[in-house]
Amino acid sequence: MDSLTQIVLGAAVGEAVLGKKVGNKAMLYGAIAGTIPDLDIIANYFTDTVSAIEWHRGFTHSIFFSILFAPVFGWLIYKLERKQPASWKDWSWLMFWGLFTHPILDSFTTWGTQLFWPFGYKLAFQSIFVIDPLYTLPFLVFLILTMMQKRDSPKRAQYNKLGLTVSTAYLGVTLLLKGFAYNKITQNLKDQGIDYKEITVRPSPFNTILWSANIDVGDAYLIGNYSFFDQQPIHFSRYPKNHQLLGDLSAQDKVQRLKGITEGWYTIVEDNGELYFNDLRFGLMSLEPDEDRFAFSYKIQPIEGDVVVEETPKLKRDAKLLLSALWARMWGV
């Protein structure tokens, strides 16, 4: 999830764990704990594209990381906050839950987390977009109300508990909404006589009303969008896999790793003699039926027996157009 959301969650968790003892300091260090796992983006500056993708939401988002580093961070805070009536164990407990709830929340997104690192299994419920105002804003309001109360006020605990309860309940609702969307999409496939091997369903950006589906039909993928306000059958656009275009490059280590990252959901496109590896998991750059640009696409360049992988840049103009189209499409237009 986005940084603000993780800060809010971390602060609320910190308050729940240690707020009665240390007041707003619990929120402060909880917010810091909620931010730490996302420092894995630093890898972008020190390694190649594929390694950075693998590192993202890996080690720092694992149970192992939370268990290993919570006592370390707890000890540092204990030394800094000697005047506070909290022990090393207290601070370590706060840091553990601040660190651990971060990847738990991220596991509901499309990217998911390697919660069980070093094991390769990725946990991804794919029921919420990385930025969802309906999750974050009510949570933030309750957190602010909590901060405004005195440490020993009963309302302080009540507001914080409400924030945690409402946000957690919303996560449960997103799973139910995904189930409804899945049923509608699969029914549309059946009605249109489309046989398929596998299907994944995920929310579109910033909402849980409009859902997108990737469908494996053998030699191609279908992509379709469904809104709860739709009155017409779903239109499915077809994208040939074209995996054969990789040729001998398919055996290259970085290409193999990209395949693993996408869990097989990718297409290959040749454009002006250049090969592009498209990650289908995060959708297209627009909602137009003939759109062929993907949100995450990588140019594959063979160089001296190896390959260089470069992520293709995104234009701000495309993002603005997509947001406008999403707003209209969300309401069934």
Automatic annotation (TrEMBL):
The chain crosses the membrane at residues 58-78, 90-111, 123-147. The keyword Transferase does not apply. Keywords: Membrane, Transmembrane, Transmembrane helix. It comes from the Bacteria. It holds the Pfam family YdjM. This is Membrane protein. It comes from Arenibacter certesii.
